[in-house]
C-alpha cells in the first residue's frame, strides 16, 4: 500500500494551524485513504518548534516572517527537513499539502505583504520535497493525486 504525506491540518484531530482552527479535508477519497492508514500527517511548522496558536507568517523570497516582523525561517526549515525525513522513512509516494501556506503551499502562497493577496509560489516544505523528487499536490488537486496514486500502484504494487 502506497503512503501519502499530508498536512496535519488537512488530516484533522489536534489543531496545528497558526489560528488554532481546523481545515480538515472531508473529500470521500481523502477520508478513504485516511481509513486505510495511508496518510502520514505532518505539520512542519509545529515540528519546527512553533506553537499553536502563533502569529501568521508569510514567505518573503527565501525568508519566512511573521506579521509582527519575527524571522521564523529557521523553524520553517527545521520542520521541512523533519517532514522530508518522515516522507522518506515511510516511503511516501507523494504529498498532499495545504495550499497558500508558507510551509505547504504547492502552487499559491500569500505575497508576503499581509494584504491577503496571493501569488504563484510554493512553501518551504513543498519546495524541499520537490527538490528531493517527491511529487506534491494541494488539497485542491485530489483528482490529480488520485490518478497519480493509481498509476503508482499499477507500476509498483
From TrEMBL:
InterPro entries: 2-thiour_desulf (IPR007553)
Domain of life: Bacteria
PROSITE patterns tied to this protein: TPR_REGION
Protein name, per record: DUF523 domain-containing protein
Species name: Candidatus Allocopromorpha excrementigallinarum
Pfam families linked: 2-thiour_desulf
Species lineage: Bacteria, Bacillati, Bacillota, Clostridia, Eubacteriales
Amino acid at each position: 500500500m502506497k503512503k501519502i504525506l499530508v498536512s496535519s491540518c488537512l488530516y484533522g484531530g489536534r489543531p496545528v494551524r497558526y489560528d488554532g482552527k481546523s481545515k480538515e479535508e472531508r473529500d470521500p477519497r481523502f477520508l478513504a485513504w485516511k481509513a486505510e492508514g495511508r496518510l502520514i500527517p505532518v505539520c512542519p511548522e509545529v515540528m519546527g518548534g512553533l506553537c499553536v496558536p502563533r502569529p501568521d507568517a508569510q514567505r518573503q523570497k527565501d525568508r519566512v516572517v511573521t506579521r509582527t516582523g519575527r524571522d521564523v525561517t529557521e523553524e520553517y526549515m527545521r520542520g521541512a527537513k523533519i517532514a522530508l525525513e518522515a516522507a522518506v522513512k515511510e516511503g511516501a509516494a507523494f504529498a498532499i499539502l495545504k495550499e497558500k501556506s508558507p510551509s505547504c503551499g504547492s502552487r499559491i502562497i500569500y505575497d508576503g505583504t499581509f494584504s491577503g493577496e496571493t501569488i504563484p509560489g510554493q512553501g518551504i516544505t513543498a519546495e524541499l520535497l520537490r527538490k528531493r523528487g517527491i511529487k506534491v499536490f494541494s488539497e485542491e488537486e485530489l483528482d490529480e493525486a488520485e490518478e497519480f496514486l493509481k498509476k503508482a500502484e499499477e507500476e509498483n504494487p
